[in-house]
Design brief:
Length: 537
């Protein structure tokens, strides 16, 4: 007999072959970091939940499946992935991952990890996966369809559909962002190793100075052994980088960040971080950078990128013509026949696809929208918390769930500026404060492996952990101190609260427009699901 909450082999076979229809609690569209983390927590927190997972790529891992061959995590492995499975290699005697700034998985290791996670999902009997498939939704009939092939379509009846709205892309997943003449050797960053190996090129031009751009420069210099004089770096705007070395002592690095609460302005705070070597920039003699996308580099990377003398600062590239690059405020010439142009560019708006309008909400009737980072720089933990809230709060109370999710939204906060970075920290503190008030929220947070702050990652230094939190530094007071300073307009360069002032009203207005009949449809779905499972068992 098929148990409630279990697809069962015969149920899947009958639904897929006889009626070409599946039934599940959650239809999750997207098997990247956000989708996989959500599914993992749903399965853990709800012992009867069933999931159908669909992704257009041939395997789980999202943009990691298309990443360049020399990519590594910029953050540490211990807080990336899903809560139920370790990714890091540095473990203690009990198998817990240890916080280690140098334990960073490669791209191929991340993809292999997600495949193993997916295998575990399917082995539970509660998850059915479709890869290399597309998702369609018919608004007129409210039908969810998985398109496996032109002749193989599977309708899915689900309690809620979960989609990922962040829209993260890497250069290999798209066409060039600007017009490029066909005679120009313009390639995504993925092609660096093979292009260098071909021996065809004497010069290299790199576009972009974010995470991917730095990786391209350091790969050319340190791995491909290209002389700095052969490289030109096109930089649209100077940016701030976090220095990984400063994070080796985790608790010391946290204390550095608390200095922002005593700064008169965000600019003063960033300059303090620079003095403490927590943050760095390519050229300290140039004007204060107004961009911070939170890329992390180490001291070796910093020395390498500073060795590049041919740095072009003429704004964004607008087009590439034969032997000529046209930029916002000028142009440069190059020789097409022996120059490789490397695409590390990103869209001009937002931070790596994290752009949400002011009316965006995560929880809606019959729908969950993943993507926003409700915890600082951590898509894994953000989606895990969203899944926890889905299970911990009444299933129809979307307003209460949204009330625990704080993130930057609206055109005013799209720009990746230092001020908006502080806004992200502020939103993180608001999310944590709300989560602690949910039953089981503190336990979930402190036991999540994707939480870099979790005690499991710092057991060797547990006394230091407690001393930092509750000793003279009183680190546990930092989130509320930061929130108080923002909300009291205590920074000279901030005159708002990043949209939190009107967030509740906007959320209620949006929810009211979408909630008609949702509770009734959900109740009907739950009843029909039980009846279907019983009749097919």
């Amino acid at each position: 007999m098929t148990k409630k909450g279990d697809f069962g082999d015969d149920v899947v076979t009958k639904l897929a072959t006889a009626t070409k229809q599946l039934q599940c609690d959650y239809l999750v569209v997207g098997a990247g970091t956000a989708g996989m983390s959500f599914v993992d927590t749903i399965l853990t927190e709800n012992s009867t939940a069933t999931v159908v997972l669909v992704d257009r790529f041939s395997r789980p891992g999202g943009h990691w499946t298309k990443a360049y061959p020399f990519v590594k995590l910029h953050q540490y492995s211990c807080s990336y992935g899903v809560n139920s499975r370790c990714l890091g290699k540095n473990l203690d005697g009990k198998g817990n991952e240890i916080y280690d700034i140098n334990d960073r998985a490669t791209g191929s290791e991340v993809v292999e990890y997600y495949q193993e996670v997916c295998n575990t999902f399917e082995a539970s009997g509660r998850v059915k996966c479709f890869f290399g498939a597309e998702y369609e939704f018919d608004e007129e009939t409210s039908t969810h369809t998985i398109v496996v092939t032109a002749t193989n379509r599977v309708d899915v009846k689900c309690g809620k559909v979960v989609t990922v709205k962040s829209g993260i892309t890497v250069p290999s997943m798209r066409e060039p962002l600007i017009p490029v003449h066909e005679s120009v050797n313009f390639v995504p960053v993925n092609d660096i190793p093979s292009s260098v190996k071909s021996g065809r090129y004497q010069k290299y031009i790199v576009f972009g100075n974010g995470k991917t751009g730095v990786d391209a420069i350091t790969n050319l210099l340190l791995d491909q052994r290209i002389d700095p004089s052969q490289i030109t770096w096109v930089i649209s705007r100077d940016v701030w980088y976090f220095l990984r070395d400063s994070m080796e002592d985790y608790f010391k690095s946290l204390i550095f960040f608390t200095k922002m609460t005593s700064a008169k302005s965000v600019k003063e705070g960033f300059l303090t971080y620079e003095a403490d070597e927590v943050m760095v920039r390519l050229d300290p003699k140039r004007p204060y950078p107004e961009v911070c996308k939170a890329a992390i580099i180490d001291s070796n990377d910093l020395v390498a990128i500073r060795s590049i003398q041919n740095v072009v600062r003429m704004g964004r590239a607008m087009s590439i013509e034969p032997n000529k690059i046209v930029l916002n405020s000028g142009s440069i010439e190059f020789s097409s026949h022996d120059t490789l142009l490397i695409d590390c560019m990103v869209e001009s708006d937002g931070v790596y696809g994290y752009t949400f309008d002011e009316s965006f909400t995560i929880f809606e009737p019959e729908r969950i929208n993943l993507g926003p980072l409700i915890t600082l720089f951590n898509p894994s933990l953000s989606s895990a918390i969203i899944a926890f809230l889905e299970c911990a709060i009444d299933e129809n109370d979307d307003e209460a769930k949204n009330g625990c999710c704080f993130f930057l939204r609206g055109k005013e906060f799209l720009d990746p500026s230092p001020v908006n970075l502080l806004g992200s920290v502020y939103m993180d503190s608001k999310t944590n404060d709300a989560l602690m008030k949910v039953k089981g929220g503190m336990k979930f947070f402190m036991k999540s492996r994707t939480n870099e702050f979790a005690p499991m990652h710092h057991k060797r230094f547990y006394r230091q952990f407690l001393w930092t939190m509750y000793g003279p530094k009183q680190l546990h007071k930092f989130p509320k101190a930061l929130a108080k300073k923002v909300e009291s307009k205590g920074y000279e360069d901030i005159d708002h609260c990043f949209g939190v002032e009107t967030l509740g009203a906007k959320t209620r207005e949006r929810q009211a427009k979408k909630s008609i009949g949702a509770a009734a449809r959900w109740t009907c779905f739950r009843r029909s699901r039980v009846e279907t499972a019983t009749s097919l068992s």
